Amino acid sequence: MSADEAAAMIDDGMVIGMSGFTRAGEAKEVPMALARRAKHDPLKITLMTGASLGNDIDKQLTEANVLARRMPFQVDTTLRRAINSGEVMFIDQHLSETVELLRNKQLGKLDIAIIEASAITEDGGIVPTASVGNSASFAILADKVIVELNLSTPEALIGLHDIYIPQMRPRREPIPITASDSRIGTPYIPINPDKIAAIVLTEGQDSPSNVQQPNEDTQQIARHLIRFFEKEVKAGRLSSSLLPLQAGIGTMANAVMNGLIDSPFENLTMYSEVLQDSTFNLLDSGKMVFASGSSITLSEKCGKHVWNNLDHYRDRIVLRPQELSNHPGIVRRLGIIAINTALEADIYGNVNSTHVNGTQMMNGIGGSGDFARNGQLSVFITKSTAKDGALSSFVPFVSHVDHNEHDVDVLVSEHGLADLRGLAPRERARVIIDNCADPFYRTALNAYFEEACQRGGQTPHCLEKALSWHQAAQQQGSMRSVAEALISANSEKSSI
Question: Can you say how many angstroms the Cα of residue 24 is from the centroid of all Cα atoms in its chain?
């Protein structure tokens, strides 16, 4: 049937699960038809996805006032404004948890799943496209399934996926993934074909990623991290093939992964969420031998190369449901090296990855928490400043905590690397300030820390000043005045 006819099945108040993970593999026609319908037939829904959607779908649904509730991740600026104004209720979740909560009836009932497919098997199995995300569990748990059969997807996608659904608790057996290249499931989503309520034929394309080229700062971050890995190999804590790598999506993480091409490491593997440009660059270079993810999200240039030559990669990549790609037990078992991006970090190692000034949501925690808490090495990278130096990415106290100090092993900026393993809070502060902070803000952070230490405490703070940097950023658009005041006060104390 047509997308408009399929969208007519969606009623006000329904809970909808939709395919899509990091701008890949989302349903493309039915949500747009729903947005068109809502302009003359208003309705509100709860929308669950794997992660972010492409093709401005979140934007269109927000502008049509369709979204009452959204989870677990997004990247759209229009939706972000609606979230921060309170118009849309956004539930920010670890990406491994959404379908677990749904499966155990903690998020209510799923009415309809809308899943993009590259093929349908003769017994009704759904073959996903460029992402799996939460699609498999959505299709299994929903009352009805609308399939968008995308005729423009490459045939080589068939057989690329590994669909496995964990058993229900409390009798769940261990998930038998013991390496990045383990295959334990089926290459399609097995569902009762009687649940398929509609098939909509489409030919839409995924949105390309907007990853920028590495610059000197991101290359410097990569060099610091590579030197750290070299020391770990020399100390016998890592082998020359390291351990399976995970990298968050975005320019910095992509640049750091690209830096491994010129490193001494060989036979690398990846167990991550998103296979992005750097993954295929590493595969092409021969440095990486296998990559497991939940989606493929590529720039326009890299996408043309990969999608036209997908057969070349078929035996070296696999796409899984995100509850497996991000599963805490598997992450712990494989000993993942997790590399994620921080908005800001404080002098004790707490990391904020979601909220500007503690209140304004950016995108969401995504899968970073799944990997950071459970991996063998938890690395967070960030440039030392933002807004042309007006803001310091290293502050006395983060304005919002996503990853507490217990889950952060290494912080890296363009200035250096802070290895926090085995350090007490006072030791961590010195290492972070001296190695990672911008030189201008470094002096002010040291002044704050010295005053806090005089007051005492296992984790020293001047509580009345702890968030003053964020107050200045909110009121003046810059942290420089607070930093200058601290430097000046410290200078006066020193002269006395």
Answer: 13
